Each structure stands twice: as structure tokens, then as C-alpha cells.
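Fold it.
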Amino acid sequence: MQISEKEIQQLVSQIVQQTIRQDNQSEVLDKPAVKSELTTLSEEHLGVFDKMEDAINAAEKAKQQYSQYTIKDRERFIESIKKWTLKEKYDLSKRVVEETGLGNYEDKIKKHELAARTPGTELLETKAQSGDTGLAIIEEAPFGVIGATTPVTNPSETVISNAIGMLAAGNTVVFNVHPSSKNVCAYTVTQINRLIVNLGGPENLVTMVKNPSMESLNVMASCPKVNMLVGTGGPGLVKALLKSGKKAIGAGAGNPPVVVDETANIQKAARDIITGHSFDNNIVCILEKEVFVVDQVANELIESMVQEGAFLIKGDTIESMKQLITVEDQDGVHVRKEWVGKDPYKYLDALNISYTQKPKCIICETEFEHPFVQLELLMPILPIVRVENFHQGVDYAVKAEHGNRHTAICHSQNIDNITYYAKAINTTIFVKNAPSLAGIGVESESVVSFTIAGPTGEGITTSKDYTRARHCVLVDGFRII
């Protein structure tokens, strides 16, 4: 009997997978189940393609192969990505800073550590329900090929975090990354594929286009082979993906407000606010962007912030800072992109302001209408607005958040005040008496993710959000009660 080439390939694949599953899981990184001659593989075999069409086709082919692998295999691949991320976090952070020019090296190390904590298959569950007519099983099944975008503010971190969640759910993913971070993202995609192939997995589970553009984004969004879209980035990009007609998850911008009332532990509130706001020079969308504090404790809060390393500017210096970091045209006031995510001292140097030690951030008192309050600066510059009472602070916070429904922070010991604010602001993430970072799992019980889906409602996205419900029904069988 003759065996076709396709049958031979299937037989070899089955033997390889069986061998992989029998290996000792604790030794899998030191002793790969399948040795791959990676040095002979071209760059395109490691996920990076010149054309978006080729990246999508490779991801689709990989998806067909990936469906033959077990959940245990997924877990091995994910574990290797996590271990590699922790091992290479210093190099990855250096690459991000050098290419994007945003944020700071130390905090990017922490962000890569955080990305390595992204949950995987452990969040997936199969439900069963039975009755007189039999049994039904509801599985969390893959969507297929996911098309995803990444922001310049968290490039490799988002690639890693999304890859973990999407691969855990059984999908493959093709990225159209932010052009200003394409090199570090290409390196990350390449290394992820090396890890997976070294463990006997399929090539190109994670792919990307080498030179991303709006054209390549449109190809990804319109291609029928892409089953789901996940947009992490600016509001314009997210809106474009939501118009595709496909299942889409949108993680848009935020302008997280903080409200501090007279019952708060002011010293702790100051420390928490500065910790959150100053993280990676404030380029993360979850971080504190403006503070509304009850006048009764405003002076104490500002003094405590200075003690925590903030630099206070006043009077004409505030206007000079406004001229430095914003520009006004017929459409309004806009942030000067060249100043996004810079170290705090660089703003002071630009204005010839002397300082004794490099500050963690810059703070200033403003009115509610000031651009520093209304714009998402993504800079370590924190405006503070005095309010007559807590309710006025909440009213201002709701307006300054601009309906993004992203993140809000409250410092109060009054449970009624906290409840009132939470209901009024109605954000995806609401943090009480802690730095904003607690909202994504930093010293808290929350889960880790770099895709916060406010516009489409998934919230802090995990592997569960990258699945579809699949019902398997057995009638008149396996009902034993």
C-alpha cells in the first residue's frame, strides 16, 4: 500500500508530538525535545516578513499545525517565553529605550518582569451541564488567526504579553507594530519563534510585517484569513479596527484622574501617586494623569509630594512649561510628541530651572480647564486642582476622563465616597488607596495585561478574551443520575 506525502508528514508530526509529551517537563528548556537547525532558518521562518500578506499566510498555516498540539504543549511554549523574558529583560529594556527614546531603562525592566507574569492556559475552563436529555460541554476554543497592533509606549512588552495570552488560547497572531519600535518588536518575535521551534513547535506562531504602515494595517484588518482583531494604541487606530466588521477588542487611550478627600492618609496618598505617576516617565495609559484634591488637605498633599521626590513649579514657570510641551492651532491645543516620555530633569533643563537632585516628576497647581488636565500628556508632569469638596472633585474627574472608561484612582477612608466615585466614573479599572499600577497586578490581586479594553468592554484582557464559546452536545447519553 502506498502512503502519500501528506500522510507521511502527519505520521512524522504525530511521532514528534508523542516524543515531546513524554519528555521531562522540568528539563525541557535545557534539553529540547526536538533539536532544530535554527542557524539554517531564514528570518522569515522566524516570523518577520516583508509583506503583510505573507505574514498572515504563515500565521494561518501555523494555526492549522498548532491545532494538532495539546494544551500541555501550549503551556511548555508559554513557559519558555516567560523564562526567556525574565532572562533577557535587561537587553530588551535597553533596546526599547534606544529605539523609541521614551521612558526609562529601570522601569522598562519592571514592565518586562510584569509581562512575564501574564496568565496563560490556567484561566481557560470547560463547563459542563447535564439534564434529562443528556450532556452539553462548553469549551473555550481558539478564534484562529488574530491580527494585533502594539503601542510605541509598551512595544516588546505588549508583544510578549499578547503572545502569551493568544497562544494560550490556541490562536496564532500577526502583529502590525508601531513603526517607531519595529526593530525591538522584530527581535522579540524572532526570539519567541526560536523558542517554540526549539521545543518542537510549529514555525511562525507569532508573525509580523518588517516595515509596518497604515497600508499593512489595512491589509491585516480586511484579510478574511484574520479572524479577530486586537488594537492596543491610540484612539484613531482603535476606531479604525472597530469598523472592520470583525470581532475586535479595542484598548484605547486614557486620562486617569485621582481624587483625594480629607479622610485620606495624605502621606501614603502622596507616595502612591508619585510612585504611579512617575513610572516609566508616565507613558503608560493606566498611570495617574491629574489630581483633584479637597482644599482642606491640598497643602499637605503637595508638601508630601515634594518630600517624595516631586519638583514643584509655580507662576510663570507653569506657562513656560505649557509653551514647551504643547502647541496650539486652529484645532486646539496638542501635545508636542517630541516631549512625550522624557526624563523629568530634561524639561527643567530646557527651561533653565536649577535643581539639587533629579526629580521623580514635576507637579504644579492649575485650574480645571488647563491643558495639563484636559490632555493625556504621557509625560512626568502632574497637574493638581483644588476642589471645594469631594463631590466637586468627582465631577471634575468624570469630565477630565473624557468618557474613555479606562482607569481612575481614589484616596479616601470613606467607603461612601469611594463607592460614589466608582459609580460616577464607571472606568474599566478603579484603584483605591494604592498606586495606579495595582490595577494591572503590581502588588495586588489583579491580573497582568498590557491591553486594557475599555471601548469594547473586555477590560484587562487575558487568554479567555481570545476564545470563542463552542458547545458540544450529547443527547440521551452519559446521564447517569
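Residues 5-9, 11-41 have pLDDT under 50 and may be disordered.
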